[in-house]
User: Which sequence fits this backbone?
């Protein structure tokens, strides 16, 4: 099954590019070095981009034409959205043709009765959020890269983020999908219906498939009512083990819209920026950011009473509650700026999850492993702890060579993932598998499951042209 | 591909039954006429039950043994839950072996931190609801047959019901699944995680698959916090076209937990029972039942103000709001008793949906078709209009022969489904396809989609032994 350019014999690159140009609008195939570099990668840094060309379809028909051509020529295709991925699922490192959705970026329809927006795949997440807001509605999937990530990519990775505890993943917000399968067929899946019990829900297969089954060419996204008087609390806890009782206490009283945590080291890195106000002076080993709709004074009172209960129990050392939108925004910066702030320290990122009840034991075990083997590495914890999702970040010591650092981290991987497996967790909670987690997939999915997944892929993509080498090895 | 008993040559029924008995506990294979009749059918009446035997596994291993044996002997298997289905998906009319989950009916674990319950497939929906309630939690999927339907069947049909507008379908509440595929493999899907981005979410394929891919042998169901001070309003509207503005008015102000409707004829049938109090005296052509959490006086006031607004607009003629749990229960009877009340009049049921914004135009068109062709038939409308889901019920005139009635109704089907197709709707919103909708599937799913569905089935069930003839023709 030919998978990449090296397997295409008899056709020269030039001929392929000439053919490709006939399938799209003039000027919509790029082969200059800058474009190949830019569109050939995502936010990961382990792979060297090396695509054959970048193609920019403007219509569903053009996407179909590209896929059919790729089947004839056995050329591998890689989808490209906002390229903010963290698993190298959108990296083209083997002479593939990158299919960018930058020119399919319109919201085609907004229906206020149905609370839906029909989006082309290249619509930026923030663009949809803003449009919803203008109409008094809300698109609740939100994360650090919302400003550049695209809806098609969100669907491909089933993006999660900071509001999952209340709103769930991207999956929950996809009312309907139009996809072009790896065979070039156009499928209109679910037709935006709330209720539709007419056989297998194929829509669900394409969500989180990382472009390995086909391309999303249109997505109808659900919108929610706008949240009312969002109010955040940042609490400093006495130790890690106090976080879950705090979650439990607040979860019982309020409908939380977020429950995030970060360690003192994560906090210190954001403080060192100098542009984020400190919430309070008491130093704490861990911090919690929680959010709820303070629709009544009564709810705000309950939040404060719960806070006081947590202080009395010795779980919480200090805390603050936002009294304005400005304060809300400032508190969120403490959490949201972490990822970008530490990106300058070449972090080795792991995105793991277990069920919420297992979090304390699991985190302690991972923490001990890393501390034992790499006492000189700075370890930062943060993440969506209300969903059981922890981001483990190891920062490169200044003197250490980048490659050596990654080799050492790869060694940690094995121990981390063995622990994930032991706790029945996920080696990738929300970043996807791509190429970075591909070789570790068996820690979260059984060999039989993987065989079934490969068989499903073969149904939609018999020639293996759709993002080969992602999720599974070629 | 052998599909039913008539294709099994050389083996006598007796030998098959003897073999089957070796796979389960003593006495757990039944072949008496009463059991064959009882376990061979669901709530539909079009098919004559004719299974070979009923088998009652008690463990996952026994289910695997049955499936492996069925593959060897090419015997068709039909899953049996609470047998409350309305599409003949659990009917065994061709010498199949029925696999009943009546003895796999335990809640194996309840985790209050994770808010999950690990259920065997035979757990009754109401049993799970009651268990959740005892723990201060809530299982929100609810419908007329909750008292006898089983969790495994709910998953097989992705059951919906009366709370979908707030809580979604069964799909939303399945944290993890253990399934035995048609090949006899045991898959543990998603491991109850909130976030898990490790390839295709196979769990989703089994939800709504009507047992055609495999059997659910364990399901971890999510629970929600208990709703607070649920309060219902029943409103009488001036005509059908007033219902959607009422929905829109309330939807903007309150987080609705239900928005149901029923026609005056449905209402009259329930009134005729004599055991349900009338909400008010004003006769109205249509009624709406809506529900919300009246957590504060302010919310109850907003509900009343919205009601007054609807009266001023001429949409609503009269209304009532529950002031106690007893009143809440009584108002719900107006809606919930319809299905059972009319079941004595041999109703021809259709369960169709469109997007909410298309409902008024769509219903008017269907109504006109039925009125034109069958002016002597009594047509009852009710359903989950807040989800775009309408139940069209045609009652058999007293003098008319049952078979003749069904033949006439089948003729309506074509016109109804053509209209469904025209409005991009679903021919089965929540009842599934089974055998009753099988031949109409193309009105909601394209031929290419159906080809992909069949190819997926072949991956999980290459010998076609799992509930053959359901969803697709054999």
Assistant:
């Amino acid at each position: 099954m030919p998978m990449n350019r090296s397997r295409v014999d008899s056709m020269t690159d030039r001929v392929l590019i000439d053919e490709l140009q006939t399938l799209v609008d003039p000027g919509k195939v790029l082969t200059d070095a800058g474009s190949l570099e830019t569109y050939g990668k995502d936010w990961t840094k382990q792979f060297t981009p090396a695509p054959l060309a970048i193609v920019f379809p403007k219509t569903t028909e053009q996407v179909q034409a590209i896929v059919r051509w790729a089947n004839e020529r056995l050329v591998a295709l890689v989808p490209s959205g906002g390229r903010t991925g963290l698993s190298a699922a959108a990296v083209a490192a083997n002479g593939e043709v990158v299919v960018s959705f930058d020119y399919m970026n319109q919201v085609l329809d907004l229906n206020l009765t149905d609370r839906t927006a029909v989006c082309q795949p290249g619509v930026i997440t923030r663009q949809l959020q803003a449009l919803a807001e203008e109409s008094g509605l809300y698109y609740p999937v939100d994360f650090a890269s919302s400003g550049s990530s695209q809806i098609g990519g969100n669907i491909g990775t089933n993006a999660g983020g900071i509001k999952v505890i209340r709103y769930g993943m991207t999956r929950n917000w996809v009312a309907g999908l139009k996809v072009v399968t790896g065979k070039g067929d156009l499928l209109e899946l679910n037709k935006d219906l709330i209720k539709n019990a007419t056989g297998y829900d194929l829509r669900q297969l394409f969500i989180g498939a990382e472009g390995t089954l086909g391309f999303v060419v249109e997505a109808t996204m659900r919108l929610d009512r706008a949240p009312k008087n969002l109010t955040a609390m940042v609490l400093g806890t006495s130790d890690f083990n106090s976080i879950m009782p705090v979650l439990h206490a607040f979860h019982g009283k309020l409908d939380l819209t977020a429950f995030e945590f970060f360690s003192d080291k994560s906090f210190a890195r954001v403080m060192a920026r100098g542009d984020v106000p400190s919430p309070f002076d008491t130093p704490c080993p861990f911090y919690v950011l929680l959010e709820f709709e303070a629709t009544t004074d009564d709810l705000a009172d309950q939040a404060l009473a719960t806070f006081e209960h947590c202080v009395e129990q010795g779980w919480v050392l200090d805390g603050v509650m936002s009294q304005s939108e400005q304060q809300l925004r400032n508190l969120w910066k403490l959490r949201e700026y972490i990822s970008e702030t530490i990106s300058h320290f070449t972090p080795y990122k792991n995105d793991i999850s277990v069920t919420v009840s297992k979090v304390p034991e699991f985190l302690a075990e991972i923490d001990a492993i890393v501390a034992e083997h790499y006492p000189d590495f700075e370890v930062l914890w943060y993440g969506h702890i209300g969903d059981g999702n922890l981001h483990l970040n190891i920062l490169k010591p200044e003197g250490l060579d980048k490659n050596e650092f990654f080799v050492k981290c790869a060694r940690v991987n094995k121990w981390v993932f063995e622990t994930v497996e032991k706790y029945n967790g996920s080696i990738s909670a929300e970043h996807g598998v791509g190429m970075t987690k591909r070789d570790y997939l068996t820690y979260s999915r059984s060999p039989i499951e993987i065989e079934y997944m490969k068989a499903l892929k073969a149904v939609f993509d018999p020639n293996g042209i759709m993002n080969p080498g992602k999720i599974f090895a070629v």
Remarks:
- Residues 402-422 of chain B form the longest helix (21 residues).
